Amino acid sequence: MACCAPKEDTESISVLSQSQESYRCPTAARTTTTTDVFETTNPAKPFASPQSKGLKQVGNPCTSRAPLEGDFVISTGGKRTGHDVKGTAKAWISMPWQVAKVVQVDADGDFRLLNEQGVESGFMFRREFAFLAELGVQASPIKDQATKSLSRDSSAVRDRTFEVKLICKDGAKLGLALDSSDVNAFEVLAVDGGMALAYNQQAAQVVKLCFGDFIVGVNGQKGDKAAMLKELEKPTVVLSVAPRVKFTAVIIKEAGEEPGVSCAYEAVSSTLLVQQVHGNTVSSGYVYKYNKSAAAGNTIEQGDRITEVNGIRTRPKEMLEEMTKSGKLELVIGRPKV
């Protein structure tokens, strides 16, 4: 099994801890290796802007439909800066006249971008960008009939568990990177080739495998981490996939107040896994206090994923540190839609 070696030391803040395990789906013949999530075997190359010889026209906002890999987008609010794919702050830059190419889309429709200098970003909010329109046409780019078909069904709601069957033949790899720290649901970190990518290229948008989805069953095995991991080694794999649903928990943290939860993350994780909510009194921590007054279905529970803290996302160490600060906290909580 192609698993990463456990880390020797852990980092903790208050009762929050770092998990020590990670998992990458193996190949059918166990001979092909894959890189860690978001790493590439070759550096990204700059691309030629599709409107390099003319005025770049801003089309529909990226919230008008689900973005697709290969779309070209442009900032709607001037110069944009962000983390690059390695997490370096302000290393990714796109000027208002420059175009960026979508290289990965998550379950919420936000994306990672390749700029004209060949630098890949971390995840960016799609609300800050618009699709690049063809010259003289104020509309989202649609390149061919296959893409047009995907665009039509992209408005469909991903609100139920669906199954994906992948068959690895002749040494083909599965092509999934997973966060397997939770025993009940493996979070999809990346679709990085193999049969998973081949499936996505022909699947309707509503049933694509997306960053942030959860694998809640493998070949009928559910709730048993070891059994699910073993099934992932087989040449034929039927995945039960649950899209991510989310809500925002707004908390006012007082000075010296503890979170009152145990959270874990792996070296390749993009979220924090809630392993336990502690105590049974308001002095147990601000999460317990929040849960006492939260609406049904919006309490923070074991197995939830903290996907964002005060606008920080995909960088769990920074998210964890932000949770210890006093003042207003906005936690975006994700969980499988089952």
The main sheet comes to: 6 strands, antiparallel
- Summarize the amount of helix as a percent range: 10-25%
Strand content: 25-35%
Strand order of the largest sheet: 3-13-14-15-16-12
Mean pLDDT across the residues is: 78
Give the arrangement of secondary structure elements.
Layout: E1 12-13, E2 16-17, E3 23-24, E4 57-61, E5 72-75, E6 80-82, E7 92-94, E8 100-105, E9 111-114, E10 120-124, E11 129-133, H1 145-153, E12 162-167, E13 176-179, E14 186-191, H2 194-202, E15 214-218, H3 225-231, E16 236-242, E17 244-253, E18 261-264, E19 272-277, H4 286-293, E20 305-309, E21 312-313, H5 316-322, E22 327-336
Antiparallel strand pairs: 1-2, 3-13, 4-11, 5-8, 5-11, 6-7, 8-9, 9-10, 12-16, 13-14, 14-15, 15-16, 17-22, 18-19, 19-20, 20-21, 20-22
Word description of this protein:
With 338 residues, the protein is mainly beta. It contains five helices and 22 strands. It has a six-stranded antiparallel sheet. Strand 18 (261-264) and strand 19 (272-277) form a beta hairpin. The longest helix has 9 residues, at 145-153. It is globular.
